[in-house]
């Protein structure tokens, strides 16, 4: 009888211990569930890109409006903003031109004063600016363009492919900035062919850094070649002081500036 009681007590004790273990286990699982799933990548640092605020996406219309809120108050249809490129053919546009100092080169009479001041400032800074190219008429551009195509096609007559190849080196008539009579190639001396690597880099840098105060911009900067189609660190274009300062300070090309007013 005594043995039976001892066994009953032992069984009761074991059952109690078992029930306590079950309760403890469930309590532990509940605590883990409340604390959330375990982070298996606890030692890894992962940075997720922040979600941009509305209107701040690069290139968005809102961002462009913010950047151009202080654009100059100019009449974009005025003569100094005429745009000649592969998408804007100015046909036989012929401005009134006058000689540049004592050279055989010509420039728009409305901007000749600004060009003269620009050149004189370069001289005062210790440089000797040379006008390599300035105004080029439609017929002169046409002659150069056809001549390059003929050279490529020789001894055959040029076809469409030859003219397309020629356009990589000579702008087709009506698409050259020189025809506006507001574009000018300024170098440190005469060159048979224009090659920036052979030019005085300090002089080119001075022209680029000071052109805006005289109303000129670097027309074909290297960084904008995908837009303009050209890379010419010697080619400067008159647009007026206000526009020039804005364009140069904001690293724009003329195409981008004109598009701000559309």
In short:
40% of the residues lie in helices and 10% in strands. The protein has 9 helices and 6 strands. Strand 1 (97-99) and strand 2 form a beta hairpin.
Explain the overall architecture.
This protein has 262 residues and is α+β, with helices and mostly antiparallel strands. The chain has one domain: Muramoyl-pentapeptide Carboxypeptidase, domain 2. It contains nine helices and six strands; from the N terminus they run ααββαβααβαβαβαα. The longest helix is centred in the N-terminal third of the chain and has 33 residues, at 2-34. The radius of gyration is 37 Å and the shape is globular.
What tags apply to this protein structure?
6 strands; Muramoyl-pentapeptide Carboxypeptidase, domain 2; disordered N terminus; alpha+beta; two-stranded antiparallel ribbon
Number of domains: 1
Describe the biggest sheet?
4 strands, antiparallel
For this structure, the CATH topology is Muramoyl-pentapeptide Carboxypeptidase, domain 2
Overall pLDDT score = 82
Q: Give the strand order, joined by hyphens, for the main sheet.
A: 3-4-6-5
Fraction of residues in β-strands: 5-15%
Describe how the helices and strands are arranged.
Layout: H1 2-34, H2 61-67, E1 97-99, E2 106-108, H3 112-124, E3 130-133, H4 138-153, H5 160-166, E4 183-187, H6 201-210, E5 216-220, H7 225-228, E6 232-238, H8 241-249, H9 254-259
Antiparallel strand pairs: 1-2, 3-4, 4-6, 5-6
Helix pairs in contact: 4-5
